[in-house]
Design a protein that fits this description.
This protein is of the alpha/beta class. It has nine helices and five strands.
């Protein structure tokens, strides 16, 4: 069974592509959703977060205090790295356990925005990068998140790995630029990955 990572910057359409693979019957692990779940339910991780950031990390009902954490880490690289260093190992272990339950599947997908920053790529056999040009990404994000300004979006993108670096490190690139049809690209890659031997790198 191949472990295939899927990544790309904000607004490129990673989740859309992941849903396409899921419709083809491919098991898909959503790193962001699982990270949020683990922060809420994994007691060891909760205690690590409280130890690092204080009890204000969680609300009185036990939910993640997202505004507090966002304020803490958005413009503080050291605090952001500290948060990621606590969460990512738990996500990595969770993914390994999850993937083990699909041993008879040709391949599984792990969707992760921080594939390289979190070292999640080291668990993968192959990496897919979803690409879209900057202007297309900004337009999509303004439509999806009307409360954000173009300056907000550019600030987020500036903190992410460059598309050039992602593309140079990827085994496969899917172009979601509005010019090339996406579904045929996904179908072709699905056929390729389904036929690939588990040892392929």
């Amino acid at each position: 069974m191949l472990k295939v990572g899927i990544t790309g910057g904000i607004g490129v359409g990673k989740s859309v592509v992941s849903r396409m693979f899921a419709l083809l019957g491919v098991p898909v692990y959503d790193s962001d959703a699982r990270a949020k779940w683990l922060m809420r339910h994994d007691e060891a991780l909760r205690q690590e977060l409280i130890g690092a950031f204080g009890h204000e990390t969680f609300t009185e009902t036990g939910d993640i205090n997202r505004p507090f954490l966002a304020t803490l880490v958005f413009n503080n690289l050291e605090r952001l790295e500290q948060l990621n260093s606590l969460v990512h190992p738990h996500v990595g272990n969770d993914f390994a356990n999850w993937a083990a339950s699909y041993a008879d599947t040709p391949y599984v997908l792990k969707e992760a925005a921080l594939m390289y920053e979190s070292d999640a790529w080291k668990q993968m056999d192959q990496i897919i990068t979803v690409y879209a040009p900057l202007d297309v990404r900004i337009k999509r994000l303004l439509q999806r998140d009307p409360h954000r300004t173009e300056a907000d979006i550019k600030a987020i993108i500036s903190k992410q790995l460059s598309e050039e670096e992602r593309m140079s490190r990827a085994d496969h690139i899917l172009y979601n630029d509005g010019k090339q049809l996406l579904i045929p690209q996904v179908l072709k890659l699905h056929a390729q990955l389904s036929a690939a031997p588990a040892s392929a790198k």
